[in-house]
């Protein structure tokens, strides 16, 4: 006979949203709390979510766990209380984190940089390992996402203080990442922001955030592009008014089974003092493959 605890361990927390044909708040009061928090990284069983929480003077990584039919209060991942931590990726098993941080990194014997870099940590029996740099850059990087073959996608921001951002990827061979490559010009722009890239595990498609594009519906919108082989990607298409709003829409995540899109949005909050919630909607990727943008 199963105990109550064993029965609840079988529950898929997202099953209650099986009829969500329009975006609805994800676990309001538990995960969606009208707060300054973003990113969406779930484990395969949907029972843990990792994200970034903004504090008064810095950002930290937190997670919540599904227990007794609801998500627990946010628990910080306490690497330290001095530096900023954001944009977590977590693997399906929930034991490998990649994230951005301004932890000091020694460039050479005479200099140290606090540019945002990509760092990683592994789950140990007594917590998380000390962060190790993934690969150094001389400018700011963020929003990592890793595919099944180890390819790492991320955002690269120039050091000139502008908000311009482009999406890059680095393939993985023999335990190390190869030279990063930018996505093509039909995805990346010269003077706008492209980032927050979620990539399907098999690299079939990529969903990203774009600012100030010609068909923008709000401050930022979600777009999808399909992998056509090599480094060729289809022209991005807006996910449409059914998903995008007049506010900030970002941090896309598609569950491994492809059934749900989860994203962060400032909809229904004041522009002068925006807050964010997480929304979930049934996702039908084929609707975007060879059609006009959904309005």
Structure keywords:
single chain; 295 residues; mainly beta; five-stranded antiparallel β-sheet; 1 helix; 2% helix; disordered N terminus
Q: Can you walk through the features of this model?
A:
With about 300 residues, this protein is mainly β. It contains one helix and 26 strands. It has one helix at about 5-10, and strands at about 25, 35-40, 50-55, 60-65, 70, 75, 85-90, 95-100, 105-110, 110-115, 115-125, 125-130, 130-135, 140-145, 150-155, 165-170, 170-175, 175, 180, 195-200, 205-210, 220-225, 235-240, 250-255, 260-265, 275-280. The strands form seven sheets. Strands 2, 3, 4, 5 and 6 form a five-stranded antiparallel β-sheet that branches. Strands 7, 8, 11, 12 and 13 form a five-stranded antiparallel β-sheet that branches. β11 and β12 form a beta hairpin. The chain is globular, with a radius of gyration of 19 Å. The protein starts with a helix and ends in a 13-residue tail after the last strand. The model is unreliable at about 1-5 (pLDDT under 50).
Instruction: Supply the helix-strand structural class.
Output: mainly beta
Fraction in helix: under 10%
Distance between the termini: 51 Å
Catalogue the unreliable spans: 1-6
User: What is the strand tally?
Assistant: 26
Instruction: Tell me the major beta sheet.
Output: 5 strands, antiparallel
What's a concise summary of this model?
By secondary structure, this protein is mostly beta strands. Helices cover 2% and strands 42% of the residues. It starts with a helix and ends in a 13-residue tail after the last strand.
């Amino acid at each position: 006979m199963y105990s109550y605890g064993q029965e609840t361990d079988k529950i898929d927390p997202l099953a209650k949203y099986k009829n969500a044909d329009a975006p609805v708040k994800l676990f309001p009061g538990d995960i969606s709390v009208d707060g300054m928090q973003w990113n969406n990284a779930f484990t395969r069983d949907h029972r843990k979510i990792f994200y970034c929480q903004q504090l008064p003077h810095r950002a930290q990584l937190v997670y919540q766990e599904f227990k007794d039919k609801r998500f627990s209060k946010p628990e910080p991942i306490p690497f330290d209380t001095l530096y900023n931590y954001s944009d977590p990726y977590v693997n399906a098993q929930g034991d490998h984190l990649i994230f951005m941080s301004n932890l000091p990194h020694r460039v050479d014997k005479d200099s140290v940089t606090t540019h945002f870099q990509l760092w990683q940590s592994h789950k140990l029996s007594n917590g998380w390992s000390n962060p190790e740099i993934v690969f150094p850059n001389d400018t700011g990087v963020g929003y990592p996402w890793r595919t099944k073959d180890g390819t790492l996608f991320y955002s690269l921001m120039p050091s000139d203080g502008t908000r311009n951002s482009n999406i890059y990827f680095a393939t993985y061979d023999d335990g190390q990442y190869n030279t990063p490559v930018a996505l093509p010009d039909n995805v990346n722009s010269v003077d706008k922001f492209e980032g927050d890239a979620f990539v399907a595990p098999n690299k079939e498609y990529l969903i990203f955030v774009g600012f100030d594009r010609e068909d923008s519906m709000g401050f930022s919108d979600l777009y999808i592009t399909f992998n056509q082989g090599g480094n060729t990607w289809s022209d991005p298409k807006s996910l449409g008014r059914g998903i995008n709003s007049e506010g900030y829409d970002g941090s896309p995540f598609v569950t491994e089974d492809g059934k749900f899109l989860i994203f962060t949005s400032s909809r229904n909050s004041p522009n002068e003092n925006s807050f964010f919630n997480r929304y979930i909607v049934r996702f039908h990727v084929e609707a975007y493959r060879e059609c006009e943008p959904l309005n």
